[in-house]
Write a structure and sequence with these properties.
The chain has about 550 residues and is of the alpha/beta class. Helix content is about 50%, strand content about 10%. The strands form three sheets. A six-stranded mixed β-sheet has the order 5-4-1-3-2-13, sandwiched between helices. A six-stranded parallel β-sheet has the order 8-7-6-9-10-11, covered by helices on one side. Strands 14-12-15 form a three-stranded antiparallel β-sheet. It starts with a helix and ends with a strand.
Length: about 550
């Protein structure tokens, strides 16, 4: 009897894991990776596949649960029958990877549960009220609160409590409790999004690529710059007092952060271009801190690829890589190769464009204060990089001296030779030390260093600093030097009055230029303008500058 019971439970698990809906949708040419209730909700699955296919796949899921329980009932042992239903649901949530490959289903399995409850009532393994109670609780929570994931967990809790009142063996009762725990773990992302305020409610119209002609959908990948940023997400705020009291170490938090897959943490709303198009943008995060990008680039690339897949599932058509994500995977090339069905950009073209747009104004204001540009010394920090070299090339003809600061002196010398040919009257100096910044009247900085590189000892009184670094290259203490002006670079104000549930650290209603590039690509539909790899085409820089002006994006200077 024991062997037969175990065999029936294994069969029930396998029945629950059979990919019937997956097979039907795949044969119909539907991409099941982007058609799932876990991310999109029932309404959007209906939109994706239509009522016919949606009804068929839902019915097949219910049949799986019903059949698993029906087979087990032949043994005549109520405990085994109940456990078979739980095994079928567990099999649906966590099927063997061999059945689905790298794209397992992400649904909540509510139809499987419905089939299980119906079969328990029909076979008499549980009283009708026990089978009906979870359905009633589910409907009540979903109707009152609107969160389907929470309703599912509430229904499972009601079922576990109801079983506890029946004269069943401890195996069935513990099995129901274990399944509730397993489902809670399975829905942890939904619970996190409820805390963050980003989980869609039942009936809420979730934006999808191609759903409306006047609305486009993008996604953008962010990460915390410090542990303070990590606490700012409400789903992680509970960790802060535990760390402050020494109950959890900062090292433990960092290790946990490295284990987390990308998640939806926010959304930008209210962006509307001058031609009337609404732009919605999901904010995704895998909470890697800056040092991880340097020390473990393979992990960062893997997380970026997972983020691109999540963006595709959520219905986005363009996925932007922000901050240190922009340099992973050969600056996005490897990420795009791994996820070819969504447009990926590192934002380099418009970032360069905002600098191109801002520098003339900065130089004009500098000169308007009675300071002679031809006698001024300008320093460019991070001049080995494409963006910083572009700055040097722009300012060299207008100042008396340019100091190029970088880590690779040989590359700096080659770049300097190019500048000397174009600006024969300007003195060009290359150096790897920051100490020479003390000579500069103007400092332009654009490094990829995770920590500040410019401190008070590097800056003289009255200097102007244009800081394009993300995170900032200039330490906050520099602002205390008399007459120093620090100007943040690459900050853009989207049109329409943007709102966000998360602070991006760029000021209210403002975003970094790399995020703005993502939005512009989505708004214009010109996906081939994406920025990938180390090369930035001049024609694309000009395109984004022109389109930004037409659509209503403003560079903040």
């Amino acid at each position: 009897m024991l062997f037969l019971s175990a065999l029936l439970l294994v069969v029930a698990f396998l029945v629950g894991s059979v990919p019937l809906g997956h097979a039907v949708l795949s044969r119909a040419g539907v991409n099941t990776r982007v058609t799932n209730a876990h991310n999109l909700g029932v309404e959007n699955v209906l939109y994706r596949v239509g009522p016919g296919l949606a009804t068929l796949t839902a019915t097949l899921d219910a049949v799986k649960g019903f059949l698993a329980v029906l087979m087990a009932s032949s043994l005549g042992v109520p405990e085994v029958t109940v456990l078979a239903g739980l095994a079928a649901y567990l099999g649906h949530l966590n099927p063997p990877r061999a059945l689905y490959g790298q794209t397992p289903p992400r649904g909540r399995g509510n139809l499987v549960l419905l089939g299980v409850m119906a079969a328990l009532a029909v076979t008499g393994a549980a009283p009708l009220w026990v089978a009906a109670l979870p359905v009633v609780v589910y409907a009540g929570v979903a109707g009152f609160w609107g969160y389907v994931g929470a309703a599912t967990l509430a229904g499972l809790l009601a079922f576990a409590l109801a079983l506890a009142t029946l004269p069943l063996g401890p195996a069935a009762k513990l099995g129901a409790l274990a399944l509730l725990v397993a489902a809670t773990w399975r829905f942890k992302e939904n619970l996190g999004r409820m805390l963050d305020g980003t989980e869609p409610r039942l009936g809420e119209a979730v934006p999808l690529a191609g759903r409306r002609s006047d609305e486009v959908v993008a996604a953008f990948m962010i990460h915390p710059m410090t542990l303070e940023n990590f606490w700012s997400a409400r789903r992680f705020a509970w960790l802060r007092p535990l760390v402050e009291k020494g109950l959890i170490s900062e090292a433990g938090v960092r290790q946990m952060a490295e284990s987390l897959r990308p998640m939806k943490v926010g959304e930008l709303q209210g962006i509307r271009t001058t031609d009337g198009k609404s732009v919605r943008c999901y904010l995704l995060s895998s909470p890697l801190l800056p040092d991880v990008f340097r020390d473990n680039p393979d992990l960062a690339t893997r997380r970026a690829i997972e983020g691109a897949r999540l963006a595709q599932e959520l219905g986005a058509e363009v996925f932007g890589l922000g901050a240190f994500w922009s340099v992973v995977g050969n600056k996005g090339v490897d990420v795009q190769a791994a996820v070819p069905d969504i447009t990926i950009t590192n934002g380099g073209a418009y970032t360069s464009g905002t600098i191109k747009a801002a520098i003339p104004g900065i130089l004009e204001h500098f000169a308007a204060e009675g300071r002679d540009l031809k006698q001024a010394t300008a320093a460019v920090v991070g001049a080995n990089g494409v963006v910083a070299f572009g700055i040097a090339r722009t300012i060299a003809p207008q100042v008396g001296k340019v100091i190029m600061v970088g880590r690779d002196l040989e590359r700096l010398d080659r770049s300097a030779a190019t500048l000397r040919r174009a600006s024969k009257d300007t003195e060009i100096v290359t150096i790897t030390s920051y100490d020479t910044l003390k000579e500069a009247d103007l400092i332009f900085t654009a490094t990829s260093d995770p920590n500040p590189v410019i401190f008070p000892q590097h800056v003289k009184s009255g200097a102007w600093i244009f800081d394009e670094g993300r995170p900032a290259d200039v330490d906050e203490s520099v602002a205390a030097i008399p007459g120093v002006r620090v100007i943040p670079g690459g900050v853009v104000r989207p049109p329409g009055g943007m709102t966000s549930n998360i602070d991006l650290q760029f000021g209210e209603g403002q975003v970094p230029a790399c995020l703005a590039e993502t939005l512009i690509i989505a708004a214009t539909g010109e996906h081939w303008r994406k920025s990938l790899g180390p090369q930035t085409l001049t024609e694309n820089i000009n395109f984004f500058v022109d389109q930004a002006a037409k659509l209503g994006f403003e560079v903040v200077d």
